[in-house]
Amino acid sequence: MRKNIVAGNWKMNKTLQEGLALVDALKVALADRDKVNCDVVLGTPFIHLVNAVASIGDKKIGVAAQNCADKVSGAYTGEVSAAMIASTGAKYVILGHSERRTYYGETDATLKEKVVLALANGLTPIFCIGEVLEERESNKQEVVVKSQIENALFALSAEDFSKIVLAYEPVWAIGTGKTATSAQAQEMHAFIRKTIVDKYGKEVADGISILYGGSCNASNAKELFANPDVDGGLIGGASLEVDKFMPIIDAF
Ligand SMILES: O=C(CO)COP(=O)(O)O
């Protein structure tokens, strides 16, 4: 059965020292809980990965990179490969975030390469999809999201597709304080799952965790996560402080 996951995406925030202090604070807070009903993942900047993994040790917190190269290795100045990320002990990589698509020109074609390399190196891609405001206003959200999934992921075998975590992040909800309503989230998540059923069948679709992202916080997480097709969250701003992140984990 699919897992519930609460993943933080720190984006370009936190110096190394600030990041490790946050990891420490989260470890303490999680140790305080009798039971945590979801997997917790921290998407840190590249330079934090080694130390974050070492600090977490055998604790049940996963570490994610926020991007990887679309090439195996070689003369690509400034890039970080999936193999390098895996060598740090990180287990996840966030791919296809709308900020990478918008500001760094990532396309479905490059993302398709990144997903293959991430999987080949044993990383779990947390693959982001979602429509911009104009697309929502012209009722194109389903067409957009379906084509993002088809173009980047549907060449995968069912076995490989089963290893992916999806994150539905309506771009108009990211960092805006304007969350999708619980009904809008469920509607899109159900649509995404149906799209997977049509391609890979019900068993694969039922096993895929689909996270919601976009202004998810302590006050709306419980309602969002109560939906049958919402399996957790990809959290930006509210993952940067332990007092804001823990209530989202506790929402499960
Ligand atoms: O982009 C996001 C997570 O990847 C969501 O960001 P916010 O939670 O800050 O809206």
TrEMBL record:
Gene Ontology molecular function terms on file: triose-phosphate isomerase activity
UniProt keywords, alphabetically: Cytoplasm, Gluconeogenesis, Glycolysis, Isomerase
E.C. designation(s): 5.3.1.1
Active site location: H97, E169
Gene3D superfamilies in the record: Aldolase class I
Claim: Oxidoreductase is one of the keywords in the record: no
Entry binding sites for substrate: N9, W10, K11, G175, S215, G236, G237
Annotated catalysed reactions: D-glyceraldehyde 3-phosphate = dihydroxyacetone phosphate
Cellular localization per UniProt: Cytoplasm
HAMAP family from the UniProt entry: TIM_B
Quaternary state and interactors: Homodimer.
Protein name in UniProt: Triosephosphate isomerase
Gene: tpiA
